[in-house]
Amino acid sequence: MELLRSRIIIGITLLSMVLMFGSALAQDADKRDVLDSTAVRVGTFKKPVNLPIPAQLDVVEDSEGDAGSSITVSWLPSPDDGAGKNNVIEYQILRSESQDGEYVIVGSASRGMTQFQDATTTDGVTYFYYVRTISKDGGANSQISAGIQSSPQWFNTKDLDTFIIGLIICAAVIYFIYHAQKGKKFFLRQIAGLEAVDEAIGRATEMGRSILFIPGINDMDDVQTVAGITILGRVAKTIAEYDTKINMPVSRSIVMTTARETIKQAYVAAGRPDAYSDDMVHYLTDEQFGYVAAVDGIMVREKPATCFYLGAFFAESLIMAETGNSIGAIQIAGTAMPAQLPFFVAACDYTLIGEELFAASAYLSGEPKQLGSLKGQDVGKIIAMIVILGLCGLYTVASISDSVSLLDFADKIKGLFSAS
Amino acid sequence: MGFWNTMLAVDRRWIFLLVFLSLLIPMFLGVTFKLSISPEVQTLYDTLEQLPNGSTVLMTFDYDPPSAPELQPMADAAVKYAFKRDFKLIIMGLWPQGPLQAEISVREAMKDPEIQARNLEYGVDYVNLGFQAGNEFVIQRMGTDFREAFPRDIRGTDYSEVPLLKNTKNFSNVDFVFNFSAGYPGTVEWVQIAVDRFGVKLGAGNTAVQAPLAYPYLGAGQLVGLLGGMRGGAEFERLTGFKAKATTFMLSQTFAHAIVIVFVILGNIAYFVTRKKEQ
Amino acid sequence: MRREIPLIITFVVGVAFVIQYFIPHSPFDRFEQLFSDWFFIIAACAIWLGALNLMKLSLIKIQKRRKDWQYAVVIVVSWLTMAIAGFAGGRDFQTPGTAFDWLYQYIYTPLSATMFAILAFFVASASYRAFRARNLQASLLLVAGFLVMMGRVLFDDILFGRLFENFQPLADVSNFIMNYPNMAGQRAIMIGIALGIVSTALRIILGIERSYLGGGD
Amino acid sequence: MHFDLGVWIGAFLTLGIISFLYKDNPWYKICEAIFVGISAGYWIASLFWQNLVSKLYDNLAPAIVALFHGQIQYNLLYLVAGILGIMMLLRLIPQIGWISRWPLALVVGATAGLQFINYLVSNGVKQIYNTIVPVFGPVSDAGGIPPVATTGEGIGNVIILIGTFTGLVYFFFSKEHKGLFGGAAKVGTWFLMITFGASFGYTVMSRMSLLIGRIDFLVNDWIRGTFG
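^ inputs. structure came back:
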């Protein structure tokens, strides 16, 4: 079975590489199409005296994969770009709605650039463009493009690669959820912070002190807050069983109502609905530092035995964790804010680092479906690791052997990860 | 070994007190030291030096009071420098409180006797356009016409009524842009629009946290120079000769860091000494 | 029904918001903006739930003369003052010179700036405790933190400034740690977070994770 | 002596908050209560004017007027937001409080969808992209990738590669950390510890800056400003 599973993982990885590579080639083919048929090619004027040699229009086309209202103008740089006394200062892009109408400047690009996106067009209107190459002595015009219209597209082809990567990870997660549901057991390693949850609640119960639960300071429009609340659901169940006190000050009203529902449900599930009270969760203020000032006050006055910080945190992380430390509470933290992790690691007893926060609710639930999804996440990691290792190796080989074709190949695959 | 045992469980309030003193005391000290100048500060200063007297300079204040300790000193020095060089100074902000910070810098500069003697006049020698909402789109609009983005200055005067702005239509009439930035919108947006699209010459002062994001632009020449955090401010103060808050603040920083470092060392010694004793 | 309809809403909306990223065509291109507006409107209604809760608890505290009830009076009075100044100010409630602005400038701002600033003390006390060579991992934390701190301030200039021009070995070491090993750790954390969020979001959209909705009644 | 009420209030509040570091006391409790009240009042007023008025009323009112003239405008969609907001408030009536789950479901669903894609792109795909560099050797600049400039950079690139790789190994959930795999995971934790130490050390300076700002206020604006 183990063998079969690893084969599936390798299979998914290989399939993803093939798909991504295929999409890169497909996109390339698309570009060639544009060049040959729909795009407009134009020539140049002769060089006037003392003026720079004008840039040559390359392609003028509707911008790819957007909501319309945009046309991309690109040109071949003037030979005077970057050197000489006629050195180019900038390129100006001019536009008109009729071929021999009045042309107005719609934007400019500094020297060395070869593309401009005019994002001020109206869909369905025909425009004509030319590029003026500016040096200190004046400007020289390219020829005028043929008429072109902008229009919105139904699929963002630029992000096809992201789409495919997302699809693969989703497929892997759903695959393992499905199998877990069918009764398949997966091995899961221990996470220290989660092993300690029950012990921490038990300690508060013994000491007759309360538990402080902080779900971060973001609203429900952050997955971290949702993760914090789902962990609260599991923690509250144990709290209800032990009949421990819980105090949960929050800084967002929607989080307040959500947390109340969650705790209430846990008390109902534990068979003690009477012990629940709405006052367990109370609102203070939306202000980050006003909130933490009040939480600090609660900590030194109530002296909770255990503090949970699970959600999205900013600078207030360390203010709370240090105050909690000074009153001798056991502190369990978890966040996906990379900037705050160091402070939690320094001041708390246990810290769930990034991904572990999201895994925590699945761990604590013990439901096979939830645990299966963690296995799916690991497939994502395998893909990331293979891609990083493989491509770094490829580049290194290419750079040592100085092989241009190998480099092109590596660039092409790397390009798949250049999501906009 | 009583000392080390005490040290291991030292009341943190002693640390608090020493940190407070280490930040406070340098504000009353006049210690000088030779500060080495980073290349990115030097190039910024050199570029300013090369501007002819009377050039038009746009300063954009994209920060708020919490970032003032890091950015205000460099803004102060820049405004003073601009006034001494007779630059025509246009002030604006993409953060609501930025232009108010600029007013502080201007007031500070006016205390300088040499600048006082110049009898600088608002509207003629300098103007504050105030804040405009819209983030990077403000810069975009300014590319066509400043007046479109700022119909009135901070005092409510029409753009066209301000003498200094008579001949200033857009970026092409500005010789240099100096950006003080604490985040978004800030240096990144100025580079991407004002530099890349409209070709302005841009120098920037950033908070220490922001500066790493701006370094790549330095390498690519999109930024002529960069002042990073208090240290950049102190270096700039040294070059312009207006030694003031950044230099003092930098000394406070060093003292405070030294206190933290000393405590960490003592804590480790205490840890090892007491552990050895236990064994 | 009370749980099914919300789960259907979550599923449909969740899928639509993933897809909108790939469809530039209207109306999908407006989804993100529209949601952000909607969310702000919902939050602006919901905040009354919180505010009423704060007032209720404070008033009960005052009425029952619980411990520290005097401070509850301060909360109620300052809340009413600020809220009334804000509502009375009309649309331009924030313009300089209004009562609301004065309260903001002279009370709100120093309070939040100072609360933010006491972090300086906590950074010092936390590093004192955490930067200790208890084991290999803690030692790495200590050494990295120590070296980066050394390179950030004037130690280079004070130690070497009089001897050499522009010689900053401590700053160089600090920058190397920031740019390479630190970067490596950050990347691993960030990629992990991306996968964690993708999988959690998927569990939410599929309705596997539903405890935030509360009970079945 | 020059008396400025605003500065004196600022000093009173600043010192009150700092006094908490010594121990909890009535001065701090007053400052805390003022802070909670003032900021909660600030938010309720701002959200009212900036969200309910500027976002809801300003978008919806013209659309409703237009509706009476027989036009259907896109902004009519804001009506749904208004209804969802009211549903949220129905929580105040316990019997029908459950209806607030609808707006909640919408918020959580949209958040899940948006963050799914945003994190996948900016945290996932982009970070992978940035990690892919040649580890060493001279590179012709043909492909547009930056060549390895110095030995330091080359060593650095190897470090980034190893660190990112082993860091990911550490985050593996479904494989026990033992043997070669466990060794890699251990190296991963070393990198995480260096990261935490370095970011911590890096941040000390900006936190000190904030306190310098407050001390500067006390010394220069308050004491020097008042007593000359």
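Residues 54 and 185 of chain D are 52 Å apart (CA to CA). The interface with chain B takes residues 21-22, 203-206, 208-213, 215-216, 219 of chain D (CB under 8 Å).
thumbs up if we can close this ticket
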